[in-house]
Write a structure and sequence with these properties.
With 169 residues, this protein is mostly helical. The chain contains five helices and no strands.
Length: 169
């Protein structure tokens, strides 16, 4: 792994961890404003925190494999397989959680995110197989960056859900 590859992934891990911390502060603000956490709030909190930690951990995997002297020809397929497996699971779980808490049709922006995310995960599986190009850091870094951007976008789209004051009783 080159220093540029390592540097990018470590910076992505740092940014992702910062996202987890910031989103936790917003949840704390919700409590300070007297609001309780509904099922919708809990689903979103879990998405922010689990998603942020997931990107952080996955961004560190190639560096760990490098420390173990695993060759690059194994590092990228292995890292991509781990990320693709986990992100596939996350997509299914998040679909089920949303369906359980929020009935009705998904908004178009949610459908678009799911669609692009499915394509991104498919790209990781292609990186595992070395198709159409030899396995490399590129698809891995793009998908992890996409995932963090998605979690951040959802955070921005839903922040008002957390900052509304609870009605006085």
């Amino acid at each position: 792994m080159t220093s540029a590859e390592s540097d990018y992934l470590l910076r992505l891990a740092s940014l992702s961890l910062s996202f987890v911390g910031f989103s936790s502060v917003v949840v704390t603000l919700r409590g300070a404003l007297g609001g309780e956490l509904s099922d919708r709030h809990l689903r979103l909190v879990r998405l922010y925190i689990e998603g942020g930690f997931l990107v952080t951990a996955l961004a560190l995997v190639p560096t760990l494999l490098n420390f173990l002297h695993i060759p690059g020809t194994v590092t990228w397929p292995l890292s991509s397989a781990a990320a693709a497996s986990i992100l596939t699971f996350v997509l299914v779980i998040q679909f089920r959680r949303r369906r359980t808490v929020e009935l009705g049709r998904f908004p178009p922006w949610v459908i678009a995110i799911y669609g692009v995310s499915i394509v991104a995960v498919a790209g990781l599986w292609l990186n595992v197989a070395g198709l159409p190009f030899p396995s490399s850091v590129g698809p891995y870094a793009v998908v992890l960056t996409w995932a963090l951007c998605v979690f951040g976008f959802i955070f921005v789209r839903t922040i008002t859900v957390f900052l509304h004051r609870a009605p006085l009783t």
